[in-house]
Structures are given as structure tokens and as C-alpha cells.
Write a structure and sequence with these properties.
20 strands; eight-stranded mixed β-sheet; ten-stranded mixed β-sheet; globular; 2 domains; alpha+beta
């Protein structure tokens, strides 16, 4: 059963990658249309106030955004939450009241109710955090067609681990069916386009609009876009640190331009505010995304390498002090050929990453 589900989500991921390459008009949905709508599952977990939370009952007649993640995640989870929160903040109060954002932890051992409440409160006080036993959480992930989240240990310390988990947000329309999902890589402008439409459209209207745009997106997905790079030297052209929600870890993103005829290798990273730094790669496709430390990162010759959300990035672990937007961090990068490079990186909120990184306005491009 799970293998069939995994194949289905792999197909969805492939469709997403194709759709991301397509030009989208303001009249289309930016989320990925599910091949078959998903009926809202019925389950009850414990919310971060210690009370039972009946998901189906408490999200009735609302757009329910459901995400499975964990609070020690420095990349996928906070970026999703920050983007949704930023868009909700700009929506009319009446529309916002019809959206319920539900964060289901995949790490109940560390994500205590208090931590869930504090972490989600950094983004939007209306967000709901749910927890339960590992058995309950595994059953609910299967209801959503997701493989069970898995731990990935950095070393022998059992308290030091990451969690591989589903990277998409499920969006249930007010009629109780999910017609679209929003994988990691979706932008704020995509949420701003879709959320008001989901709030105000009937299920029939959503189905009609998705069917109307499917053919156009399939044709547009075949279009390619050539690019050329002409650079001199190896330089770090951009560096930014996302404002962390805790002292456990932070994520840094950089852009490296290598105009030399030889490739180079990033062999070590460090920062003035962290005990250690590591380069991490976001692995997996569609249904299950996780991070894995990589000891080195090849920087191709005559090319630009971006360490950005939804891909390779730098993790700063065990922060020595709290950092907030407006601060700056010194990053120390060591390359095999050109040696050490020192970079000052501003700290910005997750919701502002798109602007600072100059990310294109369409998901995945």
C-alpha cells in the first residue's frame, strides 16, 4: 500500500517540477493539483494546550492547511510557516478567520506542547500545534498518503537527530476535500494567489478551474529556458541567515560565483555565533524530504552555485546567543583551492528570504 502511495506522490512531484517551469497567470492555482481529491481525514490529537483537537470538526467550513513537521527543523518547516503567516497577515480579517493552519509534529519526544506553542507563536498565534503518540502519528500520516517520518542521527548522541518528513502542505477546501498541495519551494505570492480563492470558491468551482488550467500547464511545462554565465574569479555574491526560532540551529544561504576554469570545493564552514557549521543537502522528492550533512560541496567551474531553500544550505548548530532580524553573522568558508573566505551575512525573517535572495516569483524556478 505504502509503495503505491509513494509512487503517487512521486508522480505529483514530477508534475510539480514541470508546472514550476511554466508561466502562470493570475487566474490559475499555484498549488499542485492532486490526481484524485483527498477527503478530509477524521482524527483527534492533543493540541498544545493539552486539549483534544477533533480535526474534522474544528476545521469544518474552513480552509484547513495541514503540515507534518518538527520545530527543530531549520529550513523546510519554518519557511512554510513564515510564508503562510505573512500572507494571512495581509488578508482581510473575515477571510483569515476562515483559514485554519494545523501543524502536526513528527517529533513528539522533543516537541512538547509548550515548545509547539512558543515556536508556532513566533509565526502566527492562530496556528495550532498537535501532538500524539508515535503510533497515532504514524496512522495519521498514512491517512494522508505519507510515508512515516524517520529519524536521522548525526552521531551517537540519541538527542541529536533530524527527522525526514513530508514536505508539502495539504490544503483542504471548505467542502472538506483537498484538491491541491503546496510542496516546499512554493512562494508567498503563490499563497497570496491561492488562499483567497480557496476561501471564497466552492468545491465545484475549484475542480472546474483546475481542470481548465491542466492542459495549458502541461503544454507550458515542456518549454525550456537557456541561461549563460560569464564571471571572473570565485566570489560569494550573497549571504543571508534566516532568523531562527530557537537557539538549536539556524540556516544560512549563500550564492557562489566561480568564474575560474577549474572547479573548487567547499570543505568547511563555521560561524561566529555557532558551535559548529555544516553544509546540508535537502534530499528526497515530493513526498518525503530530509536533510543530510555532506562533508564537501563541489563548486563547478564557470558557474553559479546557490545554497538556497529547497536545496543545499548551511546549518549553524548550537547557537551561542540569540540572533534576531537586523543582526549580522560572520560566516567562515574554506575552499580547497582559493582558501578561506570571510562573509558578513544579515539576519532576516524567513518571510523576507525571497526578497533578500532574489528568488524568482514562481515556485521552483
Amino acid at each position: 500500500m505504502l509503495s503505491m502511495i509513494a509512487k503517487r506522490w512521486s508522480l505529483v512531484a514530477a508534475l510539480l517540477l514541470a508546472a514550476c517551469a511554466a508561466e502562470r497567470s493570475a487566474g490559475t492555482y499555484r498549488g499542485v493539483a492532486l490526481p484524485t481529491p483527498l477527503a478530509k481525514p477524521a482524527f483527534t490529537l492533543t493540541d498544545f494546550t493539552g486539549q483534544p483537537y477533533d480535526f474534522a470538526a474544528q476545521t469544518r467550513d474552513k480552509v484547513a492547511l495541514v503540515f507534518f513537521g518538527y520545530t527543530h527543523c531549520p529550513d523546510i518547516c519554518p519557511l512554510h510557516m513564515a510564508n503562510i503567516a505573512a500572507v494571512l497577515k495581509r488578508m482581510p480579517a473575515g477571510d483569515k478567520a476562515r483559514v485554519a493552519t494545523v501543524f502536526v509534529t513528527t517529533d513528539p519526544e522533543r516537541d512538547t506542547p509548550q515548545r509547539l506553542r512558543e515556536w508556532l507563536g513566533n509565526f502566527d498565534p492562530s496556528f495550532v500545534g498537535l501532538t500524539g503518540s508515535l503510533e497515532q502519528l504514524a496512522q495519521i500520516q498514512q491517512m494522508f498518503g505519507l510515508p512515516n517520518a524517520t529519524r536521522e542521527y548525526l552521531n551517537a548522541d540519541s538527542a541529536n537527530y533530524f527527522v525526514g518528513h513530508g514536505a508539502q502542505v495539504f490544503a483542504f477546501a471548505r467542502d472538506g476535500n483537498a484538491y491541491t498541495i503546496y510542496p516546499f519551494g512554493i512562494r508567498q505570492e503563490d499563497w497570496a494567489n491561492d488562499l483567497p480563492r480557496l476561501v471564497n470558491a466552492s468545491g465545484e468551482e475549484i475542480r472546474r478551474d483546475l481542470a481548465a488550467q491542466a492542459k495549458a500547464e502541461a503544454l507550458a511545462a515542456t518549454e525550456g529556458k537557456a541561461s549563460s554565465i560569464n564571471m571572473d574569479g570565485l566570489v560569494v555574491t550573497q549571504a543571508v541567515v534566516a532568523e531562527p526560532a530557537s537557539l538549536d540551529e539556524a540556516a544560512a544561504y549563500i550564492t557562489i560565483r566561480n568564474g575560474l576554469a577549474q572547479e573548487d570545493t567547499l570543505v568547511a564552514v563555521a560561524a561566529d555565533i555557532a558551535v559548529r557549521g555544516e553544509v546540508h543537502e535537502t534530499m528526497g522528492e515530493g513526498e518525503l524530504r530530509h536533510m543530510m550533512a555532506t562533508p564537501t560541496l563541489v563548486i563547478p567551474a564557470r558557474a553559479e552555485t546557490k545554497l538556497a531553500p529547497n536545496g543545499n544550505h548551511i546549518m549553524l548548530l548550537q547557537l551561542k546567543k540569540k540572533i534576531t532580524a537586523g543582526d549580522s553573522v560572520t560566516l567562515y568558508l574554506s575552499f580547497a583551492r582559493v582558501g578561506a573566505v570571510e562573509v558578513r551575512a544579515p539576519v532576516v525573517p524567513y518571510a523576507e528570504l525571497e526578497k533578500f535572495l532574489g528568488l524568482p516569483g514562481k515556485p521552483g524556478k
